[in-house]
Amino acid sequence: MRLGELAAHLAGAELHGDPSVEITRVTHDSRACDEGSLFVAIRGLAADGNDFIDAARGKGAAAVVSEEPPRGDVPWVRVPDAREALALFSADVLDHPGRKLDLVGVTGTNGKTTTAYMIDSALREAGDTVGLMGTVEYRIGDRVAEAVRTTPEASDLQTYLRQMVDAGCRRAVLEVSSHSLALKRVHGLEFAVAVFTNLSRDHLDFHGDMDSYFAAKRVLFDSLLREDGHAVINVDDDHGAELARTTTRAVSTCSLSPGADFTAEDVHLSLDGTRFRARTPAGVFEVQTPLLGRFNVLNALGAFGCALALGVPPDAVQRGIASLKGVPGRIERVDVGQDFTVLVDYAHTDDALKNLLETVRELNPRRLITVFGCGGDRDRSKRPLMGAVAARLSDVVILTSDNPRSEPPEAIIEEVRRGILPGRVEETQVIVDRREAIARALELGREGVVIVIAGKGHETYQVLRDRKVPFDDRQVARDMLARPAGAGRKR
To answer: DSSP letters of 328-363?
Structure first.
């Protein structure tokens, strides 16, 4: 497209320079610029894109978009909101790929990834070619790419959507983070279905308070631009109940109690999986899943509601949920033949840890051993809360390092310990080295014991002060258990 055409599509945009300049791509990354690029200078949390305009020009950028007045003789579009411009101009240049897809947005504090995988699986069982974007990975049809962040920056997101369309996808399932909503990464996208899982304390280092956090989440539902847009909402969550009352598009409610559109009956939980009857507007259906826990019943109901809203036959939804063997790092079992259970999970908030440990408690373990830490340079208020939850629901708690980033791990652990009241747990140990902490937990494994390793889930690295090092909880535990004379072998 020509620069003048782009500028004309955005209210308040002021074009300075040649309107005939040809734009072939849009980017916020000066390093990615080349001939024909439109560089959008964004004021980020850590850096200001306006400081990299000369670098972008040096790489061949044809023009600049900024909230600041023009500099020099470079073609320049001054805009009121650079993030909004990035989203809309990226879509324009790529011929609005999102309009060629049925878009599903899944948001909430916990359960986004599992719900998105369930929806993806149901759609594939129905014969669709599907795109998936989220915390663990990006899928473009059958091609898999590593996820950079849960919801990528707008220009990257639009590029992935374009690739999905080119790969023959008709539908795409996106995990939509609160950051992406606040920072307008999904601005302008027209979602067919928006799913709300729940809301609990997280990311307050970014949002400031729960009201602001919820306000970011509800943007997805306020922006259901398609006239046939549909919201699927867990009303067992207080914020979800409010959302269901105020959302203007069609709403399907989900609950573990009677009265909602999608409810569960005769729920059976075990370490082998979960089964229940789903009561839906389309009838009552038996649902089985290898996934563990009562909260995965709610995730399955949300997936059922979303798939039916998209016209997927109920039997395809049943098959899709049943065929999903697991989600990376979400109550993922590590099993090499030991006579106790090892589960790795991404739970990194007090509510997620509570749900996880309550799930395990419902399965009546002989003993529950929890290994976890808290990330550095993130919301500190949840640290003692996570300590309190672990102490209340575990028999043994082993505190360790997570991703300490720039903070001393010992200081983070001390903040977690403040939430552990005397007498609330049989035993608390502090082992700063995460590998040693996992080894100690496995040494305590016996028949009937469940060991939970929480906080990092699918991550394959650990972020230290000045570097990122390889570290995968699942592989570390697997290697230790597989040693011929190692801890936890069957006795």
So the answer is: TTBSEE--SS-SSEEEEE---SHHHHHHHHHHHHHT
- Convert 368-392 into a string of H (helix), E (strand) and C (coil): EEEEECCCCCCCCCHHHHHHHHHHH
| Nearest in space to 283 (alpha carbons), one of 315, 251, 252 | 315
Domain end call among 50, 75, 93: 93
Mean pLDDT, residues 229-243 = 96
| 180 & 249 share domain | yes
Q: Which segments of 394-464 does DSSP mark as H helices, in order?
A: 409-417, 434-443
Q: Please state whether beta strands 461-463 and 468-470 pair in parallel, antiparallel, or not at all (unpaired).
A: antiparallel
Q: What is the pLDDT of residues 376-423, one digit of tens each?
A: 999 899 999 999 999 999 999 999 999 999 999 999 999 999 999 888
Q: Which residues of 118-135 are buried (b: 16+ CB within 10 A; e: fewer)?
A: bbbbbbbbbebebbbbbb
Neighbours of 52 (CB within 10 A): 21
Quick one: average pLDDT of 247-261? Answer: 95
Looking at the structure, tell me whether residues 123 and 43 fall in a common domain.
no
Same-domain status, 174 and 268: yes
In a domain, residue 194? The reply is yes
Gap between the Cα atoms of 84 and 260, Å rounded: 37
